[in-house]
Amino acid sequence: MPEAHVLVVDDTSPDGTGALADAAAARDPRVRVLHRATKEGLGRALVHGFRVALEGPYDRIFTMDADFSHDPAYLPALKGATESADVAFGSRYVGGGGVIGWGPVRQIVSRGGNFYARTILGMPFHDLTGNYRCWRREALERIAIDTLRSNGYVFQIEVLYRAFRSGARIREVPIIFHDRALGRSKMTRRIVMEAWPRVLELRWRAITGRL
Q: In the chain, which end has fewer C-beta atoms inside a 10 angstrom radius, N or C?
C-alpha cells in the first residue's frame, strides 16, 4: 500500500487518547490529531474527519476504530475492493467474517439492528453499522456530507444508504471483529433507540424525494 496519512479525531476522550495521539504525531509527520472541544457523537466526528480528508489530495479515505477491534491487516483488502467499487466495507456477517468477544445479547442487538435496517431500506448488504470502510473520494463528494443528519451508530447506516441511493458501487469484505481488550463500549440504550425511528425516516425521505 502506498504511503498513507492518519487522522485521529479526538472528542476530549477522558482516557488519554488525545495525549497518546499527540505523542504519535510528534514522532511521525504522517499522523495528525484533530481535537474537538465538545463531545458531539460519532456522526459529527466522522463528518469533521471527512471534511478534513476531502480538503487534502487523497483518493481513498478509510474510517476505522482505533482500539484494534478493526485489524489494520484488512486495509489492503478494502483498498483492493475499491478498484472495482466506490465503497468497500468490512463485514462481520458474511462468509469468512465474524465477531470475537461479544456476548449473546450484544450479538442479537447488532444482528437484529442490521436485519431491520436492511429490510426497511432495501439494501442487499449484511453489516450496515460497522465503521471499517474505504471510500473513493468521489463517492463521498456525491453525497454532500454536510447534510448528513444522524449522529450515533445510525450514522453508519445513513451514510451508506446515501451512497447506495446515489448509485455507488458497494462491496462487502469479510472481517473478523475483536471486541476491545481495554475500556468500555460507547453503545448505549439511547444510541440503539435513536436508530429505529431514524431508519424509518430515511426510508420516508427517500420515498418522498427529500433524501
A: N
Looking at the 3D structure of the chain, how many domains does it have? 1
More confident: 149 or 189: 149
Between 41-45, 79-83, 187-191, the lowest mean confidence (pLDDT) is in 187-191
Nearest to 195 by CA among 161, 165, 150: 150
With respect to residue 119, please indicate whether it lies within any of the assigned structural domains. Answer: yes
Q: Are 177 and 98 in contact (CB under 8 A)?
A: yes
For Cα atoms 12, 16, 17, give the angle at the middle one, nearest 5 degrees.
75
Which residues are within 8 A (CB) of 180 and not within 5 positions of it... i.e. 6 or more apart? 67, 68, 69
7 and 53 Cβ atoms separated by less than 8 Å: yes
Q: Give the percent of the chain with pLDDT over 70.
A: 93
Range of the domain at 57: 40-207
The answer to which of 27-41, 54-68, 122-136 has the lowest mean pLDDT is 27-41
